[in-house]
Design brief:
Layout (H helix, E strand, L loop, with lengths): L4 E5 L4 H12 L3 E6 L13 E4 L5 H15 L2 E6 L14 H29 L2 E6 L12 H21 L4 E8 L5 H4 L4 H4 L5 H12 L10 E4 L3
Parallel strand pairs: 1-2, 1-4, 2-3, 4-5, 5-6, 6-7
Helix pairs in contact: 1-7, 2-3, 3-4
Length: 226
């Protein structure tokens, strides 16, 4: 078993995939998690794979326990899960709000609950959740999404207060827009001019879970681009 185990959830997306690769290159034994096996096809063979929907608390706990049993207790959890649904506040439906809360907040809570006992036994750990700029700055046309991410920011600060005494650091990184093929097909050129490559955000995440960031916890790190 490796002494340094990392779990990256949402590893089928551009940011999760880049983060899994960066952490593996840094010497972690990495297990990548996504909802479908196909989403993980592009990962290097050296990275482990688990399939499951972390918006379900029972599934999230089972995933983390299974990884801990096979590779060792996770020292690092990166939650790169996210969903985006635009819409004005006056037009937001219960389904919109439920989806944004389940994916952008719920999964973060369930995964943190699942990994905390393993990190407490280790006496150390680092958790990074992926937030977004609209969580801190009101943005028209993104009501449910902004609410879900804003709640995630608050969760990060609560987890920091509760887990820091056990040697577990909890932070978030907050991009504005990622430079991915999916986003390039949707967003106008003026927005994409400020997009940040997933690999660059992955390096920020690697710093936050690494030894150089030992004294950073409870932070929401902006990564908005130039």
């Amino acid at each position: 078993m490796s002494e340094r185990v990392a779990v990256v959830v949402g590893a089928g997306g551009g940011l999760g995939r880049a983060t899994a690769v960066v952490l593996a290159d840094a010497g972690f034994t990495v297990t990548a998690v996504d909802r479908t096996e196909k989403a993980l096809d592009e990962l290097p063979d050296a990275i482990g794979r688990e399939v499951g929907d972390a918006t379900d608390p029972a599934v999230a706990r089972n995933l983390i326990d299974r990884i801990a049993a096979g590779s060792g207790p996770p020292e690092v959890l990166v939650n790169a899960l996210g969903a985006f649904r635009p819409g004005e506040a006056v037009a937001t439906t219960p389904e919109d709000l439920r989806l944004m809360l389940d994916v952008n907040l719920g999964a973060a809570l369930w995964l943190s609950q699942a990994v905390a006992p393993h990190m407490r036994r280790l006496g150390r750990g680092a958790i990074v959740h992926v937030s977004a700029r609209p969580a801190a700055e009101p943005t028209a046309g993104m009501a449910a999404y902004s609410l879900g991410k804003a709640a995630l920011n608050h969760l990060v600060r609560i987890l920091d207060l509760e887990l820091r005494p056990d040697g577990i650091r909890v932070n978030a990184v907050a991009p504005q827009l990622l430079d991915t093929a999916r986003n390039r097909a949707v967003f106008p050129p003026e927005a994409l001019a400020h997009a940040v490559r997933p690999e660059a955000i992955a390096q920020v995440i690697a710093f936050l879970v690494g030894d150089l960031a030992t004294h950073i916890s409870g932070a929401i790190v902006p990564a908005y681009g130039a």
